[in-house]
Amino acid sequence: MFDAVVVPLLLGFLEGLTEFIPVSSTGHLLIASRFLGFHSAGGTFEVVIQLGAILAVVWIYLAKIVRTLGGLGHDPQARHFALSVLIAFLPSVMAGLLLHDFIKTVLFESPGIIATALIIGGIVLLIVDRLPIPQRHVDAEHFPWRMSLGIGLAQCLSLIPGVSRSGATIVGALLMGADRRAAAEFSFFLSIPTMVAAVSYDLWENRAGLDAGAVHEIAIGFAAAFFSAIVVVRWLLAYLNRHGFAVFGWWRIIVGAGVWGLLLTGHA
């Protein structure tokens, strides 16, 4: 009973803490689950609790979301922003549908792939953080549609666990001239339809394996992810403006190298 509460609680907090920073929440969850001896049917727990973190974004940006949805009929800016998010959302949905079984049965079960993706992603973050890229776009609501498509294509890389959905979309936006705050905010909004679609599909695919115990674990992880993500989202934007991404890049490299060390020495 202790493990059935504490482990999902710890994993939920880990999800909320890592979902919106570019370190790969899925990679951290899969690694932590493996070393804690936690297993969920079809990896559903690790996917579904991400919706708790997404709900935190909805909560924080509720006024902007309501304003955008309410203005779709008469406000060109609201329609532009909504269409931008939709354009960015579509590539990963199509790729996810095509590759779902391979991702869940092969990539999710490969800690070596996750560790390698963490290290490579960390190096990319360190490089991009130092590039002198002109910041032409400072408002996430005004990204050009071609730019939104580029961010959506970058998000497809996050289908590999360890890459990081937020990392891929933020780096994609930065390379196309967004400033750090706008890149992070667009990534927040893009996470809403992306993760709702991913969770819905995953629940449907694994509906037969969801018993009362699994639902109980998911509920605990969901709540923990929601509350910890609220703290992270409020903190992250201010942090990025002052410090950039270097600390996240180094963290990824350290975690990835640590996992490889455990694998190579037979401790995993």
UniProtKB/TrEMBL annotation:
The keyword Transmembrane helix applies. It is a multi-pass membrane protein. It catalyses: di-trans,octa-cis-undecaprenyl diphosphate + H2O = di-trans,octa-cis-undecaprenyl phosphate + phosphate + H(+). Pfam families: BacA (PF02673). It is found in: Cell membrane. The chain crosses the membrane at residues 42-61, 81-100, 106-128, 149-174, 186-204, 216-237, 243-264. InterPro entries: UppP. Catalyzes the dephosphorylation of undecaprenyl diphosphate (UPP). Confers resistance to bacitracin. Belongs to the UppP family. This is Undecaprenyl-diphosphatase. Keywords: Antibiotic resistance, Cell membrane, Cell shape, Cell wall biogenesis/degradation, Hydrolase, Membrane, Peptidoglycan synthesis, Transmembrane, Transmembrane helix. One of its GO terms (molecular function) is undecaprenyl-diphosphatase activity. NCBIfam families: PRK00281.1-2 (NF001389), PRK00281.1-4 (NF001390), undec_PP_bacA (TIGR00753).
